[in-house]
Design a protein that fits this description.
The protein is mostly beta strands and 142 residues long. It has a single domain, classed as Nucleic acid-binding proteins (OB fold (Dihydrolipoamide Acetyltransferase, E2P)). Helices cover 7% and strands 47% of the residues. Strands 1-3-4-6-5 form a five-stranded mixed barrel. It starts with 6 loop residues before the first strand and ends in a 35-residue tail after the last strand.
Length: 142
């Protein structure tokens, strides 16, 4: 039986991406995206809630995120969910769920009003799978 693990979100970065490199030099960027939902209750009261989503990018996609994304920037992220489990110092089991990004589109302007879209592309992949990175010539901006 087939299965599907696909996530699509649009939201705003809660902070600048955190860049790291693995021991073998693979780039990784991690950032949080705020996804807002608003609705009106049957009583006519307007409500809003924010869901924070942790996103991880690898290799060239991570480098692009680190270079072009910043706090407040609106992004579209497509990827898959992954849940990590660990044991804390007190011996308690902990979990965190994150989106492993396959594509990231930079939406809106860079804060200076220049509006452009595009920008991500392959990079969030399983260990051992080949990257589908981008060349600098593939970017829709300088």
């Amino acid at each position: 039986m087939a299965s599907l693990n696909k996530v699509q979100i649009i939201g705003n970065l809660g902070g600048d991406p955190e860049m790291r490199f693995t021991a073998n030099g693979r780039a990784m960027a991690r950032f949080n995206v705020a996804c807002n939902r608003t609705w009106t209750t049957p009583d006519g009261e307007r409500r809003e809630e924010t869901e924070w989503v942790r996103v991880v990018c690898w290799e060239r996609l991570a480098e692009l995120a680190g270079q072009y994304l910043s706090k407040g920037r609106q992004v579209y992220v497509e990827g898959r969910l992954r849940t990590n489990e660990w044991e804390d110092r007190d011996g308690n089991r902990r979990w965190t769920t994150e989106v492993i990004a396959r594509d990231v589109l930079f939406l809106g302007g860079r804060g200076g009003g220049d509006d452009f879209g595009g920008g991500g592309g392959g990079g969030g992949y399983d260990q051992g799978a080949p990257p589908s990175g981008m060349d600098a010539d593939d970017l829709p901006f300088e």
